[in-house]
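Format notes (please read before filing issues)

Several people have asked whether sequences and structure tokens are stored in separate files. They are not. Every record keeps both together, in the order shown below: the sequence lines, then the token lines. Line labels are part of the format and must not be stripped during preprocessing.
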Amino acid sequence: MGASYKIKLSPKMRPFVSRVVRNGQVQRNFTERIGRPAGACVRANVKKGMSQAAIRKTVGDCGKAQRGKSVKV
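Then the structure lines:
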């Protein structure tokens, strides 16, 4: 399944149907280069019993490590 359709809102808050790519090259590149490494970092650093603030900080730190990576081919 390469593309599907989704109802979105325009800047003037009017609904319209838009084509959405779900399995394109850019989406796959994002998953491989950013999504999986960031997810692994969060999984490794978030422990049971952590406060919400500590979890947010950990997620932010993991996201900063991925900043600047390109998803283009």
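For reference, the curators noted about this record: The helical segments are 25-45, 52-66. The longest strand covers residues 3-9.
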